[in-house]
Write a structure and sequence with these properties.
Elements: H1 7-15, H2 51-64, H3 68-78, H4 87-98, H5 106-116, H6 120-136, H7 139-145, H8 153-165, H9 172-178, H10 183-194, H11 200-212, H12 216-226, H13 229-240, H14 242-247, H15 255-267, H16 273-283, H17 290-306, H18 312-318, H19 326-337, H20 344-352, H21 356-359, H22 362-374, H23 378-388, H24 394-402, H25 418-425, H26 428-439, H27 442-453, H28 458-470, H29 474-481, H30 490-493, H31 499-508, H32 513-523, H33 544-554, H34 567-584, H35 589-598, H36 600-608, E1 614-615, H37 616-621, H38 626-647, H39 653-657, E2 659-660
Antiparallel strand pairs: 1-2
Helix pairs in contact: 2-3, 2-4, 3-4, 4-6, 5-6, 6-7, 6-8, 7-8, 8-10, 9-10, 11-12, 13-15, 15-17, 17-18, 17-19, 19-20, 20-22, 22-23, 23-24, 25-28, 26-27, 28-29, 31-32, 31-34, 32-38, 33-34, 34-35, 35-36, 35-38
Length: 671
């Protein structure tokens, strides 16, 4: 048998970064590598890369290296490339917009947007133009160009600033709600503060919230909008040593002095909190307004909670009903959940302090239902559980179990028809996205793909997800299918590529394949060459040092770091490490999942601070690292669904979460 070119493996080669400029001239054989070894007559094919596509590739490299003359020279040829011809010109236009020494190429920009019509790049260059216009003071042009489809904080702040500068009355609270610490938002905020449109209390709220996140640079910039030069010296002094600065202060009289003293007192929470509590009570409690003192106690509670200290509740309970950030309200509830035994009345009170919007989040609906049930109000508790039982998440699953019902999988929708798939395949935006994925350009491919999904019906989204599955772009299968609203296809949302190979590796070392799949779905969305911002690689997102350590441990003598994205190597090392972490943490999937993400030592530290045995759900909800807390929820929720899909049998999330008991040992030999 003669087989020509397997399109399927052409795409895998692309995504592995080999950069083969295959023309796609022949059909798909659909063979696995093992099958391809038999009855195959190998023939030589001369592949002539499309010169216009080559020009696009060279143009991107020139853009990345800031070789602008080279980029400009490549634009004419690159513009002839099918699907991707506009990218080189976009890169050049963006350079011209961001270069103050270059006149704005108005005619070229307008022609580009007209030529590309509804394409992603037209919207992107419109966004870039709005930001550049606002920066240069051309406010009329920024307003004229608005709105854009795929907006962001820079664009939103640029438009609001421009409207203000043109004399339109703008709302200060709208500006505060839009604000993110990016350049145009700072420009907007500076101007609106100067014109007294954003006031003192709004700035104080922003400053307090920013200090909670430990973003001290942003906090200092906000403080400079509130305080004069002398007061900023005080701010810098108490940020360095709050007790020393406070020792030289009298009872505050002015609004600014009260704010400074209150902030300084809150910084004492980073010292010995018991000692500093007595100091505040004896020296300052009667010198600042009650609301400010209660905010200080809320900060003491937050720092204690983030350090997983059981006495965090003592400060939270002193904080009364003072409004807090959503972040701090959440930690007030979590601090109550870590008590042994749990005081469910206090849990419900803490949730009631939240805004209605925050209370409506499934996490707090569930825990409020639990608090009602613990207080004997089963009927009301059921109403809360029922309100989230169709939420396909960690707390939706737990709510079903509280109702005594099996965790459901929604009925499969009608399969995508050939006509629906053909329409998706013919969509220029999806075609462009696929081409970009084939080149390995994920930074361009993902927004291009997502932009194209806007306005699609559920059936069109299912077809787009099915196209992504056909193209083996598995993260887009999941993320696209998750956008449907009235139907849910779990074969897409919980796609299981490489199923036989991953499951076999898991079973060899007595690991639950569903758990491994749940972890991979969260780690990499099945992108074999995924790389995180901290350097973790591959399907199971292994850090280089961990990969080397595991390879030595299991006797993989030929391992080198370049192999970490290899499917077999990554899954062997990843499953082996996961098994080591599981064994080190007494077989608890909760602790091991947290340990895989944050390090097994941290799981041991958090467990060591428990006052007594707790539900796995309580332990999970009170993990102090936001990333790890969400990670554990997603992985274990995923695992339940994968287990149901693999086995066809009902599953229990509660059983998987189990109970976590204190263990004072904090030592681990694992990296």
């Amino acid at each position: 048998m003669v087989f020509k070119q397997c399109q399927r493996y052409q795409k895998l080669w692309w995504r592995a970064g080999l950069g083969l400029l295959l023309a796609g001239v022949l059909g798909s054989a659909g063979l696995e590598p093992a099958a391809a070894q038999e009855d195959v007559e190998v023939i030589n094919i001369t592949i002539r890369p499309d010169p216009s596509l080559q020009a696009v590739i060279q143009a991107r490299e020139a853009m990345q290296r800031k070789r602008w003359d080279e980029l400009e020279a490549l634009v004419p040829q690159a513009s002839q490339a099918p699907l991707l011809g506009s990218y080189a010109e976009y890169w050049l236009l963006r350079r011209d917009l961001t270069n103050p020494a270059t006149p704005v190429p108005t005619q070229r920009l307008e022609r580009f947007m007209t030529t590309n019509e509804d394409a992603y790049l037209a919207d992107r260059i419109r966004s870039d133009w709005i930001v550049a216009a606002a920066r240069s003071g051309d406010y009329a042009k920024a307003v004229e160009l608005a709105p854009v489809v795929a907006s962001n904080s820079q664009v939103d702040c640029a438009v609001l600033l421009s409207r203000h500068m043109l004399g339109e009355r703008v709302n200060g609270q709208v500006a505060v709600d839009l604000f993110e610490p990016v350049s145009l938002c700072w420009m907007m905020l500076d101007e609106l503060v100067d014109k007294n449109i954003v006031g003192w209390k709004q700035l104080e709220t922003m400053l307090r919230a920013t200090l909670e996140t430990s973003k001290t640079g942003n906090a200092r910039r906000l403080a400079a909008l509130m305080f004069d030069a002398g007061q900023m010296k005080s701010y810098a002094a108490f940020m360095k040593n709050p007790r020393q600065w406070l020792a030289g202060q009298q009872a505050p009289k002015t609004t600014a002095d009260i704010a400074l003293v209150t902030l300084a007192l809150s910084r004492l929470a980073r010292n010995d909190r018991e000692v500093e509590t007595a100091y505040i009570q004896n020296n300052w409690a009667s010198s600042i307004p009650k609301a400010d003192l209660e905010w200080v106690w809320g900060q003491f509670g937050l720092i204690a909670a983030l350090n997983v200290e059981p006495n965090a509740v003592q400060w939270y309970r002193r904080s009364g009903n003072i409004p807090k950030t959503d972040y701090n309200h959440a930690w007030e509830v979590r601090s109550e959940l870590r008590q042994a035994p749990i005081d469910w009345v206090q849990v419900s009170r803490a949730i009631q302090k939240m805004t209605p919007r925050q209370q409506a989040e499934p996490v707090w609906v569930y825990w409020y239902g639990r608090s009602l049930a613990a207080q004997g109000n089963e009927a009301a508790a059921r109403q809360y559980y029922q309100s989230i039982q169709n939420d396909y998440s960690f707390y939706g699953q737990l709510a079903n179990e509280e109702l005594g019902q099996p965790i459901p999988i929604p009925p499969a929708p009608a399969p995508v028809t050939p006509q629906e798939l053909a329409e998706a395949r013919a969509n220029p935006g999806l075609q462009r996205g696929i081409k970009l994925f084939d080149l390995g350009w994920r930074a361009e491919a993902v927004p291009e793909w997502n932009f194209t999904l806007r306005g699609m019906t559920d059936r069109q989204l299912l077809a787009a997800a099915e196209l992504a599955r056909e193209e083996q772009i598995f993260d887009r299968v999941v993320n696209t299918s998750l956008r449907t609203s009235s139907i849910a296809d779990f074969s897409q949302r919980f796609v299981a590529p490489f199923e036989g190979r991953v499951s076999a590796k898991a079973r060899e070392i007595n690991l639950d394949p569903a758990w491994v799949y749940g972890l991979i779905r969260q780690e990499s969305r099945f992108i074999t060459d995924a790389r995180s911002r901290v350097g973790a690689s591959g399907l199971m997102q292994l850090m280089p040092a961990t990969a080397r350590w595991v390879a030595r441990k299991i006797g993989m003598s030929d391992f080198n770091p370049s192999m970490v994205n290899d499917f077999d190597v990554n899954t062997i090392l990843g499953t082996q490490y996961l098994k080591m972490v599981l064994d080190d943490l007494d077989g608890s999937q909760v602790l091991a999942t947290a340990g895989y993400n944050a390090g097994p030592g941290r799981s041991k530290q958090w467990r060591a601070k428990l006052l007594g045995p707790v539900e796995g759900a309580v332990f999970t909800e009170t993990i102090p690292f936001t990333e790890t807390r969400l990670y554990v929820k997603h992985v274990l929720s995923n695992a339940v669904y994968y287990a149901m899909l693999f086995s066809g049998q009902p599953q229990s999330l509660k059983a998987r979460l189990d109970t976590i008991s204190p263990n004072r040992s904090r030592r681990t030999n694992l990296p």
